[in-house]
User: Fold these one by one.
Assistant:
Number 1:
Amino acid sequence: MAPCKRVPMFLILFILSITRVATTNAIASKVDRFVPQDNYLLSCGASAAVQVDDGRTFRSDPESVSFLSTPTDIKIAAKASLASASPLSPLYLDARVFSDISTYSFFISQPGRHWIRLYFLPITDSQYNLTTATFSVSTDSMVLLHDFSFIASPPNPVFREYLVSAQGDNLKIIFTPKKNSIAFINAIEVVSAPPSLIPNTTTRMGPQDQFDISNNALQVVYRLNMGGALVTSFNDTLGRTWQPDAPFLKLEAAAEAAWVPPRTIKYPDDKTLTPLIAPASIYSTAQQMASTNITNARFNITWQMVAEPGFRYLIRLHFSDIVSKTLNSLYFNVYINGMMAVANLDLSSLTMGLAVAYYKDLIAESSSIINSTLLVQVGPNTIDSGDPNAILNGLEIMKISNEASSLDGLFSPKTSSEVSKTTLTGIAFALAATAALAVVICYRRNRKPEWQRTNSFHSWFLPLNSSSSFMSSCSRLSRNRFGSTRTKSGFSSVFASSAYGLGRYFTFVEIQKATKNFEEKGVIGVGGFGKVYLGATEDGTQLAIKRGNPSSDQGMNEFLTEIQMLSKLRHRHLVSLIGCCDENNEMILVYEFMSNGPLRDHLYGDTNIKPISWKQRLEVCIGAAKGLHYLHTGSAQGIIHRDVKTTNILLDENFVAKVADFGLSKDAPSLEQTHVSTAVKGSFGYLDPEYFRRQQLTDKSDVYSFGVVLFEVLCARPAINPALPRDQVNLAEWARTWHRKGELGKIIDPNIAGQIRSDSLEMFAEAAEKCLADYGVDRPTMGDVLWKLEFALQLQEKGDVVDGTSDGIAMKSLEVTNVDSMEKSGSANPDYYLMLGGKYHKPSITASMQLGEVQHPQAYKRVYGMIKALSIDQS
């Protein structure tokens, strides 16, 4: 018998790869192809029909011209040399150009969700420069693109994919060029989607309730095949393309691809999930945790995507257990932006088998999108199930249209009736403006010469101490129906004029000089409003100059709020507004410069800055608490900051803390109200979970955020760190766990670990812990928090270390600072002070010692209650 010859390994791998591709194609061919009721495929501007790789044929322009209504007939084609050599799809080689509003209309035979797929590429033409085109695209009820243009040079093809709800028998796609510009389109698809593809309601993260999306449009932002290759419309009966996930893996070494033959994938017998949801080629590949044979290996696989803020997102997760050898051996968690999305996912109990397709839909709220980032993570749970592992087979992320019926900003589609209303409103406004101008002229003629020298109407438009209702009316007058205060040329000067009276009025020339004409190296901060520049006056006084971005609606809303709030606020621990400028359609606010920057920089992150001491940290926290306490109690109604975090606590040259950034602030509820109902806003990791669940805002939401700040000060780490193991991602949860175990000292910042007295630490930690209570009613007021922090500082400065095992007392008399000022502000806590003869009196420690019972500072309140009961005056 002849000996067997060894087959080279490269040949085996080659044969396996061919078999894998062949199997995938075979499975795809066996799947019943979806036949849409409506199937419009147009190659716009093409002289002949175009067939693409998956076998579909796009109609030529002459065949599709009946769908188009346009005042001009402009078609262009790529040069023959480019067309013959181009690797691009032939759909990008021709285009229709529109110089005015133009509409494609499609008859809809089956109402329901329809795909709209748009293809754009600015091909070269001698007459029309498509690279400079700026235009909007909408249906009759939904904005798809607003002021769309090409930025990249040379331009790359752009493909946009939408799912819209077509309820009538006609669906319109409207192209609207910007003034003095053009619009264009290369190809269009309008195709029926399977009714079962997208449910009417979906589970929302956070509140865990059902959210109705039946009337919302969706934009496909990402469609990823985990651990697998590119899947094109050739292998997807719905014409979808699935990208490889590798470019989005945050740490490729954490993931390991898994694969099984697609023929092994099974779909549920009840037909609730079919290959229309996702083909077998998606479920047959996955990413799993790398090095799963390492005992107790616990980490997450993380995918990081860019997401546009201000929108909700539908996240569809595809799973199939292709890595386990037996049932009930795979349990894992799924996280979205650090939040638990699916806990203890057990595919075995859900599918009753291995390699069975399963998917899960979730909605991520707009408030969870931080820094334009969307993180999807899978990792093992805490159940002891052998080797920890986690998988993900496929991922789809779809943007959900907002309340303005838009998928691109806050610009609603205009119907004809709205246009007519707008016209009438414009006429009425013009008449009103004329009348107002006449009044102004008369007023100015009779005004004193000193007023004329200011060259401004600001001082009587809005006085410094104007009521919030008057400010609101000014805001409403200047805003358009989208909440924006922009004009075609920039910011509305009507709105900007309302800022006068908030200090010095700067000319734009002065601002340019102070910032060296907005020199880029002078930028010290960037936000939704625009940029913050370091500036200086002629006498050398340094300023922080916030320049509004005219393209940011979010920034304008925050400017409005900040002006409204700062017109009512003056306090040593709040950043002061020095003045403003509203010339040349600019919107600029000028603040005192805080030379030591945000508190966060002095805790971690900037290796060039020496971390501040424990005593300094206590003083900073006390200052911030005083500022927040003033916000909550300093006016009749009170103000809720809504974005308390370490980057919004700034330090001056003497390390005095001042609370900044009031762009998200809201008036507190009136006496007749328990809360303010409002959309959730704030910073992830600092958000009050009760506010997030119920969308009901109270001052206790600030208290929760401040509790996170306190632990951040103690531990010197971010509020959310997705790169850490699951149980350490959320600082608030992690720190509370260690505090309850009595081992908080193990997670303290090493830079201050040896500086803290145990009693001071316990008082500080108790304050932070109480701030983080699950329900607002169980949290202290900022006045209570302030008292505890001052107590912690006094213990640090004056108190001896208290040995919890000692029977003696080593506690000195403690004095609370500014008792009289606390009495006037109402912040003194009656649990700690006696009201005798109209004055607050603090019992001396001597009287407490005579009563006994004092073993620890925590017992102080209890002893004081006994003193109060005995009516002992220890003044």
Number 2:
Amino acid sequence: MIECIDKGFYYSEGTQIIDAQSISEAEISALKRRNGLPENKNLRENTMTYQIMMAHNLSAVPGKMRIKFDALISHDITYVGIIQSARVGGLTKFPVPYALTNCHNSLCAVGGTINEDDHVYGLSAARKFGGIYVPANQAVIHQYAREMMTGCGKMLLGSDSHTRYGAMGTMGIGEGGPELVKQLLSNTYDIDNPPVVMVYLENEPKNGVGPHDVALALVKAVFGNGFVKNKVLEFVGPGIKKLPMDFRIGIDVMTTETACLSSIWEIDEEVEAYYETHARPEAYQPLHPGSLAFYDSMIRIDLSEIEPMIALPFHPSNAYSIHELLENPGDILRSVEIESAKNFGDNLQLKLTNKVQGNHILTDQGIIAGCSGGMFDNICAAADILDHSSSSERFDGIGNSYFSLSVYPSSMPVSAALMENGVLLRLQKAGVVTKMAFCGPCFGAGDVPANHALSIRHTTRNFPNREGSKPDQGQITGVALMDARSIAATAANGGFLTAATDLEIPLQKMKYHFDKGIYQKRVYFGFDKPIATESLRMGPNITDWPTIYPLAENLLLVLTAVIKDAVTTTDELIPSGETSSYRSNPQKLAEFALSRRVPSYVRDSKRVQQLELNRLAGNPPEEILAVLRLVTENPDQAISKTAIGSVIFANKPGDGSAREQAASSQKVLGGYANIAREYATKRYRSNCINWGILPFTIGSEVEFDYKSGDMIYVPNIREAIQNGVEKIPAKIITQTDIQEIILYCSGLTVDERQIILDGCLMNFYASKKDLASEK
């Protein structure tokens, strides 16, 4: 079904795959000559990835890229912080098209006026700086980008991890807000040349198999082993032509869950027709690998062998075929319960084995929504399955039992097309609730299931509590990811888990009509038309960042969270859902940091922060002086040069969302560092650096048997960062002894080192601005 091959390959003339280990240098030279390529041609540059990235690269240093993006996009729980930070750095106008969508806190149902205050701020910022403003319920962020901003050969940076537009010929990268701040201030996205993985698609999916089935099978194959981490996935092969655009898009958006950097697909007439349909024919241009291209590794996917899939809690990679689950439901569901007890304790264990009824599994809720599920073809397919099932005696609509099904089209144009062709009416007549374009079900702000419910969703993620449950209040639910087709089949079967392939229902291909006038009548298009006199409209929840200090000569770090899970998600570091309403208020938001994983973290970090505030006020705490007496010769002198801060240990933090607040909330609470064995994603590590949090790692062989309250003394850390020293000796002070440890801070660029020295990215740009004004 899916084969991962960890060695290099050449792809010749778009048809032949050549094992790089099976071909000699002389044969490679002959291939180059036959294809009219110079002998010294770097064949990695013939990939579509490098064709695009090199066209956007300003660096002259081999192996290093400094990327300028064509456009930027953010949603309403990120753009306020980004623009506020950019203002500190001297923002006067948006240098490239920057779209501000309002698809997360769209309901304006939490915190009184604060959600709509953010939206009003967004419109005023679009007017003042020359941006694009997409009002609430018009579109989810990535659907708007697909419809209105992509183009073959372009690069787009978004402050959301699912910024993936490879199927449209656009390289999308999702990062934390500070990376967008850099672009807004006409700086670059700096990255080492990434490896490129060929994803070779062949054959055709079975009827009833959808894009989420392919995507979940891919995530299962590559996430756990890190096969594509921080690499670019490049989709080629004859199977592409067998997939309509929505199918490709549905696979592509889920590549985020593989931990890859970005994605790109070979372009054909389907893409050309897509841009014609969306009244942007100029956005199309041919895009293919060069006649001979080199790939670092390969994933081979036989689409005909993909089965309907289900990803059980608590990760998209925890995937099984639906048939496999139904054949052994007790053991598989019990494994989820055990994982739940491990994470939340026996008193809050998710109960799933009680969903097994004979040879069936009864689910409680179905959702088809967002940038992966709410696509035109998915919703049409769901309607076909429910319609066909209604002709049988056993299905008479969704019914009035506990199971419910809701559908959220991904944009107003998609919704309008589904109204025009009658699909929404057909769904409503079957008992389905149809709703607006809204990301809520994907991040915990809408359709939160009942306690201990099992919700099946065609959305992007199923991390713990991401659906909105509150474990501190005794709540827990489970989300399983499935394709819209099998969700509809399950709905047609009374909520009993069913693979769409079992129903053998023919799915018709319906023509899509895009009405651009919907956006023209409502969206504010202000790019290149800034109104400098416009005032930003600031609600009471929109606050400036607190003072952040430069890095001190030495650090005394206090462990305030030690997390031994294999992977820690950004949802655990800072929850989503209604908590997101406070992202415009950094100090209020920080109150929720790690609240669902380490409830004591905020309290303990604040206590440490108060020690530092006392030190800065000239009142060095005696307990800190006592520790310094153990590790320094002159504690009274050392205290003036030693900052006190909190530190988190986690094995592999940062999987999932691009949210910068997973790092900034630590900083607001006085965090100075993280210690990890590795970082789950490049974007989370970048967020840490941009907020002045030292991204320490330790060797895989090092036992980290320490607990909250233990301290780590890092002498001469400022000098080490300044000089690019990567191996940093430190001392761990426990209640019983003092131990040596080596911390690594590897691969920092010159700018990243200065950002950490200055305290954060805002300080970095503020100091540049001050220097410029002095000149």
Number 3:
Amino acid sequence: MYYDCRYVSPCEAIWRSLGFEIQYRSVPVERLSFHLPNEQNVYFDDFDPIDEVVRRETVKQSMFLAWFKANQVYLEARELTYDEMPMKFVWKQATREWVPRKKGFAIGRVFYVPPGCGEQFYLRCLLNVVCGPTCFEDLMKVDGVQYKSFRDACYALGLLDDDKEYIDAIDEASFWATAYALRRFFVAFLIADCLSRPEEVWDKCWTYLSDDILYRQRLMFNHPELILSEDEIKNYTLFEIEKLLRSCGKSLEDYEGMPTPNAQFLFTNRNRLVYDELRYDRVSLLEEHKKLLHSLNDEQFNVYKTVLKAIDSSEGGVFFVYGYGGTGKTFVWKTLSAAIRSKGEIVLNVASSGIASLLLPGGRTAHSRFKIPINQNEDSTCNIKQGSALAELIVKCKLIIWDEAPMVHKHCFEALDRTLRDILRFTNPMSLDFPFGGKTVVFGGDFRQILPVIPKGTRQDIVNATINSSYLWRYVRVLRLTKNVRLLHGDFSQAPEDLISFIKWIADIGDGIIGGDNDGCFDIEIPDDLLIKGYDDPIASIVQSIYPEFASNVDDPSYLEKRAILAPALDVVDAINDYMLRMNGDELRTYLSSDSPCKSDANVDFLIDLHTPEFLNGIRASGVPNHKLHLKVGTPVMLIRNIDHSMGLCNGTRMVITRLGNHVLEAKVLTGISAGEKVLIPRMTLTPSDVRLPFKFQRRQYALIVSYAMTINKSQGQSLSNVGLFLQKPVFSHGQLYVALSRVTERVGLKILIRDQDDKDTNVTKNVVYKEVFQNL
């Protein structure tokens, strides 16, 4: 038995249920054929003479070739890619031509071909990005260079990923960068796991990386006539690379196939991690400790004395230093570090974010120091093997300081707890019964700030993910800092009483006091002196407030360094950044990513056939840049990945673009320990950790975002003098408004523009505070 049925999908069902019109509702889809040169389909009957068939005009009038002709005739067509053509033009089958559309629109879909089809696949990739070509040669021309194949053109556009790109990047950078910078560039490739065959890249590029080795050795030995063999130069170069890798906790031995320097150059019998932590100058640290100790206030001294007592008693302990920005938490960390290191002992300073880790002496991110997995669960452990160099370092350390702890999920702390108990049980069997194996651990942070990000999580999910919801919290002793030391030592333009009032206002917003006795999401009024009013274009108005005289300062890094516009939503941030890029009169360059399903996926072949390149290009996920990255010289950007912590190149580091290459970018660092230094930025293979994606894909792109404007979440940890808060959409999570307002150092540097639901300016906005997170502090 058969039934003649029609399947009604959920979206169509709800459309019918709500009573909307159901006739003429289908969206027309135009299937777009394409072909290689002289390989178009030719139709003929069995008995047609072949020479007559070839001479027919229709042979040269395929849909694809007609697109070339339309681009020659219509200016509007030259601004469209092939798949965008049906939106503005109609394919007339009878006359075999594209003509301008008079009404309606259609969606274009280019016929799919798998990667195994070679040039056809590469041609299809080009059709999704190249606008208005008039012939096949135009498709193969990139930046004025005519390539011989579609594959070469795809490679030039950055649509393909292989190690040749990194060889070309080093070759390109060698014309302006020093050999030392190139070695750091190569180390960045290794640390980011970008290279599939690192030994091949080394073989082709070692001459660039070693360009200064002979000069350095002649200088070192004071021997101007010193001659080194090729093998000796390679060996010295590998040794320099090894030193850079070890400063980041890596080694050439970690990369299969890479040569290593001779053993005589290395401290093979020494734990490099322990050695690095014991290299501090104890005499200078002792002097620094005396100065810092003398400057502590009573609250800070109480924290200092309590922690040192726990260390000296060998009983251990877990502490949480709770205080808002300006109460001197970082000052306490520096004092404790100096006290312990001046005695020749080890303290491990870590932070939840790269930016926060740069403020700590010898700081690292917690994830990199303790090998915490990116995606954790309630049973996770750190990837630290018993008996390894890192395990030995942990056994010997006296204190662990973890700053900005409320930012990350409680599973991170629980993973470290399980790992430390396991490692330390071999030195002390009783360690299994103590939190963190009996080590003294000090956490710090401010629960008013943004809590762990839980994709599509409820209020209960977010609160339950915080550290004070962990089983470890019952062991924690909370130590408070309430006195703002910035007021005592800062040099501010406004009166102290005004600054005190401003800081209290921000703290009250963070505590949820302003706006009445509310909990959760509630309305608050913003003072008039902070508001931007009376404007026609809100984006232009807030840009003018934060970036006055932008045209004359566009190339001045000091002008850009301490300014930013903040917004809760990414689409608003993108709109502001696009507006600012248009204001910059320099030449715009667009860098395209190469996207593919993760090759480690068991179903990679199926996923490659299922997901077309343009589908992957359209994915916007947290933690990875967009497919198209628009940049100009002088554009401020922010790193969204850790590249080289020893150089201060961490997630959140702000830079300004100084050179746009084909395969490499040069930028000047604006913040952190390397402020003012020029660095080389490579394309990196990035895999988003977004759990909402049903599959894993990887994107090779520069790990940068334009940062004239940034999301509030991304601004956490930044300190700015001029902040514009654009609330076209209100904040939506705990602590966002508090974080945005507390980025600015003075009231005079803060401007706020608020739009209501009717897109009119207002002085009322939402604040979100989950007060239950403060209950057990």
